[in-house]
Design a protein that fits this description.
mainly alpha, 15 helices, about 85% helix, about 0% strand
Length: about 450
């Protein structure tokens, strides 16, 4: 159906291939965020800021689940890419079948646990009474999309392992367009609108997963998916989980700390909740750039590590970080210059816009720190070292933000004080990961 574009990561120039790999991946991240952006924008325009706040309340929780899937799928990406670099075709094929089964099991498990825990989690977040019912409705609907979301992320990882980031982008673009159309239809069909946008997400996620599944079944070579003979290879499963679980935990730690901050935002009222929801849907696009180049680093390093080309692994890491800075910087400047106009697209309430603009300056301006953090973490994962960066993120991000919330924020409970926790935690964690990278690189041979 789609034209696959594989990249030779083992030979020739590096910088142009990283760009060809990372840009579709960044656009995929942006498209992924459009699901939530469309939900927030449609509800903000046609229903009201209470419905918008209800969706925004769940963004951090949803991010936690998505990061689990992305982390686990990154394990599959690394394992398959290392097999490709080492020309171990049979092992790569076994890893593909194993990853697909793992995706299904993980997605279904999240639905079961999530639906049972929804009321408890929302109570813990201290969601204001005026948005509580809508927040629960949206979260329960969104959880139904977890199997499809999990499968899509693993399928996309399979394509990435051989250098194809275009096919997942096309599939997600189709799903994003469908999600927007269904949002506009369903928001007027259902009474509070929230159920409708949740249902649209379930349908669109299922479409993106189905498209990639068909492409993998049709694919030739190591990433061919044989749906009639799916199996679990214990050795490949162990390696995928060994690398992927810490990566998932690392991403989840960011989301856990954001959940704690979301609870603090909730204490500041509906305007602060709506402002954060709008600002987050804008600022996350900057992180999509950072994450894309980090994943490029992981995949390129994985293949070259499999081929035992250590010098090229190191060149990949620093070239990718440099390119990341250029692209991320350009997008950040655009967002900060047009911050007010972008926020008004979601909600024109002056107080919501003012608080959203404040958040963007506190998060987007210093987010360049994250380039080094994600780049070095991505490189370590490419070498198969995943636990160390996860532990350091737990200490540097979660530890710093929790400490900040219960000390600095409690003494001065303002929106500005709360937002300062982000850059402080990034700086501490980047310093820790940089030390770890230097240590491991000195001992890899």
């Amino acid at each position: 159906m789609f034209r696959s574009r594989e990249i030779d990561m083992l030979h020739g120039s590096i910088w142009d291939k990283i760009i060809w790999f990372a840009i579709p991946l960044a656009l995929t991240g942006v498209m992924n965020q459009l699901f939530n952006t469309a939900d927030v924008a449609v509800l903000g325009k046609f229903v009201g800021k209470e419905a918008m706040a209800a969706v925004g309340n769940n963004i951090s929780l949803i991010g936690l689940l998505v990061n689990l899937f992305m982390g686990l799928s990154l394990g599959a990406n690394v394992v398959i890419a290392q097999h490709i670099g080492a020309q171990r075709s049979a092992q790569a094929h076994a890893a593909v079948q194993t990853a697909f089964v793992l995706a299904l099991v993980t997605g279904v498990g999240i639905v079961i646990v999530g639906e049972a825990a929804t009321s408890t989690v929302l109570a813990w977040l201290e969601v204001p009474h005026e948005v509580e019912s809508m927040a629960e409705t949206y979260l329960r609907m969104y959880l139904l999309s977890m199997p499809a979301m999990s499968v899509y992320n693993f399928e996309a990882a399979m394509f990435r392992s051989k250098g194809d980031t275009n096919t997942p982008l096309i599939a997600l673009a189709i799903a994003s367009g469908l999600n927007l159309v269904l949002n506009l239809i369903f928001v007027s069909t259902f009474e509070d609108g929230v159920f409708g946008v949740g249902l649209a997400t379930v349908i669109a996620d299922s479409v993106s997963a189905l498209i990639l599944m068909v492409e993998l079944i049709r694919a030739e070579g190591v990433v061919h998916l044989d749906i009639h003979s799916l199996m679990i290879d214990r050795a490949e499963l162990k390696e995928i989980v060994r690398i992927g679980m810490p990566a998932g935990i690392q991403g989840m730690v960011f989301s856990i700390s954001n959940l704690l901050i979301q609870a603090a935002i909730n204490s500041l009222g509906a305007d602060a909740m709506a402002a954060s929801a709008a600002a987050f849907t804008i600022e996350i696009n900057v992180f999509c750039i950072i994450s894309a180049f980090a994943q490029a680093t992981t995949t390129f390093v994985s293949q070259n590590f499999g081929a035992r080309n250590f010098a090229r692994c190191r060149r990949v890491t620093w070239i990718s970080i440099g390119l990341d800075g250029i692209f991320m910087g350009a997008l950040s400047i655009f967002i900060l210059v047009f911050a007010e106009e972008l926020l008004r697209f979601f909600n024109a309430d002056p107080n919501v816009v003012a608080l959203g603009k404040l958040r963007l300056w506190y998060i987007v301006a210093p987010e360049s720190i994250n380039i080094v953090l994600e780049g070095l973490s991505g490189a370590l994962r490419g070498y198969g070292i995943s636990l160390a960066p996860a532990i350091l993120v737990l200490i540097g991000v979660c530890g710093v933000r929790i400490t900040w919330l219960f000390t600095i924020f409690m003494s001065a409970p303002t929106y500005e004080t709360l937002m300062t926790a982000y850059p402080v935690s990034w700086f501490v964690t980047t310093a820790l990961v940089a030390c770890a990278y230097r240590f491991y690189i000195a001992h890899i041979n």
